[in-house]
Amino acid sequence: MKYRIAVVPGDGIGHEIVPVGMRILGAISQQFDFALETESFEWGAGHYAKHGHFIPEDRVAEMATFDAIYFGAVGLPEVDDTLPFKLFTNLVRTRFQQYVNLRPVRLFAGIDSPLRNKTQKDIDFVIVRENNEGEFVQSGRQLYPDRPEGLAIDTNIVTRAGVERVARYAFALAQTRRGHLTNVTKSNTMIYTLSLWDRVIAEIAEEFPDVNYRKMYVDAASANFVLHPEYFDVILTTNMIGDILSDLGGAIMGSLGLGGSGNINPERAFPSMFEPIHGSAPDIAGQNSANPIGQIWSGVLMLDHLGEKRAAEHLLAIADRVTARGVRTADLGGTAKTSDIEQLFLQEIAKAS
Predict the structure, then answer these.
(1) How many angstroms separate the CA atoms of 314 and 318, rounded?
(2) Domain ranges of the chain
(3) Residue 184 bridge partners (DSSP)
(4) Contact (Cβ atoms closer than 8 angstroms) between residue 181 and residue 171
(5) Which one-letter DSSP state was computed for residue 58?
(6) Do 130 and 239 touch, CB atoms closer than 8 A?
(7) pLDDT tens track for 40-66
(8) Residue 38: left (phi > 0), alpha (psi -120 to 50), or beta?
(9) How many helices (H) and strands (E) does the chain have?
(10) CB of 260 within 8 A of CB of 296?
(11) Which residues in the chain come in under a pLDDT of 50?
(12) If you compute the radius of gyration of the chain from its CA atoms, what whole number of angstroms results?
């Protein structure tokens, strides 16, 4: 089997960790008898600084011809930080109907969580974040911002169809895991949009009687991430809440550098995009010090989505073997280089060949 992958390093450390991830995925593909045919695109904030756009409009449709997009990170200090989401990340997510943002949280072997006495069995859940609606639709405006009466409006948009589709995905995912789903919401204060969100999710829950469903307000969920992460299996939540909670999830894993994610179009009508949860970190770019594990884990999610589940499970197990060896990059308090972690992965892959 051959898969066409659009590779977009983006900016900053993306130019270091994406090639590492692709080399590791290439080694795994040889072992499991499939091929990754790649084409690289130099799009991002650096492209914007030179050409005035993050991605040429006439090239967006070209990306739809690929099976998946393997993305690094986007953003540079010299480029307005409101633009990367608007002109690249959100553009791809909405154009390709990637309405599921999948962000797993797990403690890797040998890594101590900042949470005292929490182990791998306690920290193992998945955040399903609605990815096309909610608080990030960028529907709003500013009126007279420089005058005393200036005001600004952002509109939170929730549709029945949008909630139904992401909820069905999340409940089906829970059926493949431990059978628990938590709706993280704030409908006691956002009484219109999130009360509809809650109502539709409760209706969908009736279609999945084998899944234990509960609702939790985001303030309580934030506390429980720290005090009782073992409460969670699959979390279903909104665009902004999911964005915030997934970074908290990365923190309780030990570092945002470990976190991977997928922007999923479940129907496969369009390619899905896979990226680490951290940013482009231009302050450490070019130093060979970035942690590539979040990028590699994003590759695991990509393989799983493409149907190469055995390869995905094998590579995730290798990640545990690597972290168990105690070699750490700077974000985890160590001195290992990006290239050191790559070599450990390649050595573990070679052992099984």
Answers:
(1) 6
(2) 1-104+258-353, 113-253
(3) 216, 237
(4) yes
(5) H
(6) yes
(7) 999 999 999 999 999 998 889 999 999
(8) beta
(9) 12, 12
(10) yes
(11) none
(12) 20
Pair of tokens at residue 231: 């409460």
Give whole-number Cα distances, 163 to 94, 134, 199, 218, 297, in Å: 15, 10, 10, 17, 27
| CATH 3.40.50.300 for the 1-104+258-353 domain, yes or no | no
Rounded to 5 degrees, what angle do the CA atoms 272, 8, 42 make?
145
Give 288's DSSP letter: S
| Cα gap 211→205, rounded to integer Å | 8
Are the beta carbons of 125 and 180 closer than 8 angstroms?
no
Do 342 and 23 contact (CB within 8 A), yes or no?
Answer: yes
Only one residue has tokens 């983006």, namely: 10
Q: Evaluate whether 353 touches 327 at the Cβ level (below 8 Å).
A: no
Quickly name the fold that domain 113-253 has: Isopropylmalate Dehydrogenase (3.40.718)
Q: Do you know the residue count of the chain?
A: 353
pLDDT tens, residue by residue, 275-312: 999 999 999 999 999 999 999 999 999 999 999 999 99
Find out whether 250 and 277 touch, Cβ atoms under 8 Å.
Answer: yes
SS3 of residue 308 by DSSP: coil
Among residues 112, 105, 113, 120, the alpha carbon closest in space to that of 326 is found at 112
User: 270 near 129, Cβ under 8 Å?
Assistant: no
Q: Fold identical between 1-104+258-353 and 113-253?
A: yes
In single-letter form, the type of residue at position 244 comes to I
